[in-house]
Every structure is written in C-alpha cells, then in structure tokens.
Amino acid sequence: xxxxxxxxAWLGLEPTHNPHRWFLPVTPGIAxxxxxxxxxxxxxxxxxxxxxxxxxxVVWATAQYLSFAKVDSVxxxxxxxxxxxxxxxxxxxxxxxxxxxxxxVNAALGxxxxxxxxxxxxxxxxxxxxxxxxxxxxxxxxxxxxTRLEQRWALPVGSDKPGLLAxxxxxxxxxxxxxxxxxxxxxxxxxxxxxxxxxFLQGGNTSSTSLDNTLRVMELHxxxxxxxxxxxxxxxxxxxxxxxxxxxEAGELCxxxxxxxxxxxxxxxxxRRVAD
Length: 276
Hints:
CATH topology: Porin
Mean pLDDT: 93
Helix content: 10-25%
CATH class: Mainly Beta
Order of helices and strands: HEEHEEEEEEEHHEEEEE
CATH superfamily: Acyl-CoA thioesterase, double hotdog domain
Strand content: 35-45%
Number of strands: 14
Number of helices: 4
Shape: globular
C-alpha cells in the first residue's frame, strides 16, 4: 500500500534553519522520463515554500522556466517577501542548482472575506473516471512522475471519442497516487499538462517544453480525481499556447492555469535546453 503524504512530502521539499530557504532533491518521482524535474513539480515546490514561509495560501503564482534540473541534483529555493501586508503578501521564490537559476516564481498570497462568491463557467459533461479508458503511458521508464499518476481520457457524454471534448479541447481525469491533501502545490503539478494536450491534438507527433506556468487558485476542494480541462488556443512559430481548468469529480472549479511552450516534432526523444 502507498503511504499517503501531504504535497510537501510527496514532492520531497525540505525546510532549512532559515525560514526563507527550502531545498528539493530532484528524484525520479518528480521528474520526466528524460530525467529532468517536471516543470509543474518545480512550481508546486515553490508554492509550498512560499506558503510555508508566509503561512498564507497562494492566490496566484507564475513560473518562468530558465533551465533544467537533473535527477540527483538539489534545487534550493530562496523566498523573498516583496510586500507583506495585513491581508495580502506579494513574494517570489527563486530556485537554483548551485549558481544556475532554474525557475523564478512570482506570487500573491492571502485570504480575504468576500461579500459574494460566484462562478461563471461550468465543467464539461463527461463520464465519471471509472467509465473512461486509461491514458497510455508515453514512456516505459519505470520510475518517473508518470508512474505516480493514474490518468484516464475523459469520455464526453454522447461521444465515442475519448479525450476530445471539442475542437482544440482535451480532457483527462487524473488521480495523484499517495497524496493525502488537496493543495495549491498539487494543482500546480496538474496545471502543467497543456503540453500533453498539444501533443494529443497533433496526433502524438510533437513534444513540448514549458516556458512558463501560471496558476490561479479558486478554492481547494476534497476530491480523489481531478478533471483536467485543457483548451489549446493554437500553435504558431514553434510555440504553443493554452489554458487549463482543473475541476473536481463534483464539478467544483479548483484552479485555472495557462502556459506557453516550445513545440518540436518528435524525433529521437531527446530533450534540449530551453534556450535552443
């Protein structure tokens, strides 16, 4: 049986004696099949560090990916509080391996009372996870982030095309194995699946490298499965752009994400530097 952990332990993020510094050993379980830290795990760790330092929940966070962190390296996160008000904190977390900056995250944190809460978008109508077909693993690497997620292509009600919700829109149910809580860090990991949506829509003939990842947290709701509702707006000049809505099984909106990424035709599966 897999031991249930909170997101910080699931990612492997550790505190130091300095409340503004954290470190993340890059293990295969938070890495891609190419043995680099998965971008969403980097943002998730930065969010966990920001929340741990400020003791406030993230409202939004945006990551810029600058380089790759290899498996067996250690990413140090330094948290800076730019503005720490009575209700809201503006802060940043910079992750680096030695002298190389890997990821820069800017964020706002806090919680305020609201006189009226509303939602103006609805989840797609899809079959429940147990009625949907599994998503095939893209790699046979035995130990990677891919092996810690269970995913199923969402089957729209009245359709026989798993995964395809509409033109340019992809849906996949996702369950995080061994996770005990629902947190912004978890949502950050799941928000990094727009590149998967691009690959799906292009018949699996492309791979993508994230340039950024922005997460806007609506509200944390308990759920076993998350529905990743991915809308790819387009691919042009070698770059792809899209938006993701993350829903619970009950149709509650947890977060909205957006990304731009480098899109390449699949050849030998090698991953290149972001600057290429």
